[in-house]
Amino acid sequence: MERYPIHLTRIVHENLSIVMSFAYSRSPLIELMQNNFVGEWKYLGKAIFEIGEEKANRAITELAILLRILDDEQKITDYDKQICNPWSCGHITFENGEVKDMSPREFSNKIIHAKTFTWVYAVDKPPQLICYARDNDNRNWKSAEVNLVNLAAFCGRVMS
After folding, report:
1. Cα-based torsion angle of the residue sequence 16, 102, 26, 70 in order, rounded to the nearest 10 degrees
2. What is the pLDDT of residues 95-138, one digit of tens each?
3. I need a labelling partner for 107 at 20 to 30 A (CA). Which of 5, 64, 79, 120 fits?
4. In this structure, are residues 132 and 116 in contact, taking their beta carbons and an 8 Å threshold?
5. Could you read off the pLDDT of 62-82 as tens digits, one per residue?
6. Does residue 3 fall inside a structural domain?
7. How many domains does the chain have?
8. DSSP state of 48
9. Which residues contact 135 (CB under 8 A, 6 or more apart)?
10. Cβ atoms 64, 114 nearer than 8 A
11. Which pTM does this prediction carry?
């Protein structure tokens, strides 16, 4: 069999859409809640924030798995290394303090093997996704910070 039996790039596109829509809508939604609702709005908060985050978590996990399959099939990481143009999807911090760029394949591995990951929002900074290593991970990485803009660009590149 020559090709994976599902249309990978279409599903990559769908998952990327969910991730980016969630990540870049969070700050405006926080502002909307602060400016228009007084007191606790438990169920509205759940609808606006919690459900979206659950869907984004599932989408980023599926995206990582699909990119890993696509990389296995198309050898994208190997090609990037050959042309001396490694693509960075963020950076990995190791237990010894060393920081290194994270390839798309490493992004996939960090999401798949993470103990957990969390979305981080800060004023005047783009949203971030931080992955945390399992306690028993023998690769000595501590955390991985995903650059969502670079990840989106990479996905746009492979979808053409």
Report:
1. 10
2. 999 999 999 899 999 999 999 999 998 878 899 999 999 987 66
3. 5
4. yes
5. 999 999 988 888 777 777 777
6. no
7. 1
8. I
9. 115
10. no
11. 0.87
